[in-house]
Every structure is written in structure tokens, then in C-alpha cells.
Write a structure and sequence with these properties.
Layout (H helix, E strand, L loop, with lengths): L9 E5 L3 H7 L4 H22 L3 E8 L7 H24 L2 E6 L7 H13 L6 E9 L1 H14 L7 H7 L10 E4 L18 E4 L9 H12 L12
Parallel strand pairs: 1-2, 1-5, 2-4, 3-4, 5-6
This protein binds 3-methylbut-3-enyl trihydrogen diphosphate (IPE) (2 copies) and magnesium ion.
Amino acid sequence: MMGHIKIPQHIAIIMDGNGRWANRQGLPRIVGHYRGAEVAEEIVKACANLGVKYLSLFAFSTENWNRPQEEVNLLFDLLKSYLSQKKEELLEQGVRLKFIGRRDRIGRDLRLLMEELERDTSQNCRITVILAVDYGGRDDILRAINKALRLEFSSIDEETFSELLDLGNIPPPDLLIRTAGEKRISNFLLWHIAYTELYFTDLCWPEFTPAELIKAVEDFSRRTRKFGRILDE
Ligand code: IPE
Ligand code: IPE
Ligand code: MG
């Protein structure tokens, strides 16, 4: 079955359902986020092994600031401690780490850590993991427009505009996976998903596994991408 599987060059994941998974077992939501971080790590390894070149993970949206302050704080504490522990491992595994999203509303310690990790993993080329933190698709587009205005463009084409977005030269996702049954985009990579194949699963993110990832990739393999054209049958 794995014989003629098409491997997406870029997979994007909306890692949803941490809170519901925890609630279902009578655990505090943050336990779901901890488990979610472990799953993210397993999925990074699985993607690298499959030969996926880019993996974009939605970790915190521009709207997630509207959650209770306590949950927001715990999420950022978790992100900080996780990232500071994982540096060596990322280097060993050949992971290049890149962050997308706003940098002006997160704490100085985390911001410096993000910059350090981007710098220190910049020579790695096995897989690029893009972590979306304080990311919103609309915010990304608006920041790009404001950059274009500052550069005094009088008009702009798609290619140049793409380069002003946080993903820059990275090709758009071929496959977008969302867990936990919700069938929406929730302001993730809006510009980039114009022709992305969408895959939804009812499993919550803490329940997601490398085997489920392969299921999604197999499903993707069976899709016919037409990009508006007519294909010979
Ligand atoms: C996804 O899980 C993680 C973040 C959005 C930070 P949720 O926290 O949204 O979990 P549910 O959707 O409430 O179950
Ligand atoms: C999307 O999940 C954001 C992340 C996974 C980081 P949400 O849980 O915030 O999305 P909604 O509120 O259900 O649309
Ligand atoms: Mg959610």
C-alpha cells in the first residue's frame, strides 16, 4: 500500500482538540496541551522519515489570546520549556525550525529563544518545521500589505506578495490536516491554502499517531489535483 504513495512536500496541521481530550478523561485542559506537544514531536519525526520537506504546525492563533489568562500563560510556559529542552534533539534530527506569526506580543524570553533556535538550526535541511505562534492568516496578509506600502510598491504581483508573507519562499501546503472534527480553517494560512487538499479527522490531537498521518497521506495520494485545469481521463 505504501508502494506508490505520493508524499506531500508541505503538510500543515491545525492541532485541535487538546482541551476536549483532557476533559473527556476528567483531566485539566493543560494536560491535553502537554500530551499534544508530545504528539507534535512524534509527528515531526514521522514526517521527516516520510520525506516531507515542510511541516507547518498551528500552535497559537491571534484569537487564542481571548482564552482565560491562566490558559494563555500555561500555554506559553509549556512552549518555552519545551523549546528550551529540545534544542539538541532538533539539531541531531536535522530539523530546521522557523516561526511564523507576530513577534510583538510575546514575552522577551520566548522571543529570544525563538530567534536563537531559528539561527542555530538554520543549516539543517532534513525537514523544516514551521511553528505558528500568535499567527493569524489575516494578520499575516495585513503585515505583508504594510511592508509593501513601506517599500512604496505601486502595484504587486502574486509572487512578490507571497515573499512578503511570513512563509516567504516556502511552497504552499499540499495537504492540510485538522483534528477534532471541526471543519474550518480558524484563520490559519489563508493566502496559501488556495489549492491545498483538506483532510479532517474526528480524532483529537493527543490521539493522533504516525499511523493516522500515513492514512491522511494515503488519502491525499488518491486525490486528483487539477488547479483549475481539465485533465485527460
Ligand atoms: C488546540 O486544542 C490547541 C490550541 C488551540 C492552543 P484546543 O485547546 O483548542 O482544544 P479544544 O478545541 O478546546 O478541545
Ligand atoms: C485553532 O484552534 C488554533 C490552533 C490549533 C492553534 P481553535 O481551537 O483556536 O479554533 P476554533 O476556536 O475552534 O475555531
Ligand atoms: Mg480548539
